[in-house]
Amino acid sequence: MDITRQQAHPLRGVPRELINIVGTALALFAVVAAGGLISSVLPDNGSPWLFAASYGAPAAVAFVIYWWIAQKL
Q1: Mean pLDDT per 10-residue segment, the chain (73 residues)
Q2: What spatial distance separates the first Cα and last Cα of the chain, rounded to whole Å?
Q3: Rounded to an integer, what distance in angstroms lies between the CA atom of residue 47 and that of residue 53?
Q4: What are the CA-CA distances from residue 32 to residues 19, 25, 45, 55, 62 (Å)?
Q5: So which domain of life are we looking at (predicted)?
Q6: What is the pTM of this model?
């Protein structure tokens, strides 16, 4: 049985801008969630740099993933 092109690419009809907006929103949510989890396990007398790094590290990973996807498109 042959699969049509429409069935093979379900996101084909969705505008690329909408996919970009949804992907960015999901990435921001993931960065805030991961940063919150990391900062919750830090000691109370921790350095402000550790707090900043707890959000900076997931943000850096999200940026690398975004850059990699942008290179593929």
Answers
A1: 58 81 92 94 87 94 90 76
A2: 30
A3: 10
A4: 20, 11, 21, 7, 11
A5: Bacteria
A6: 0.73
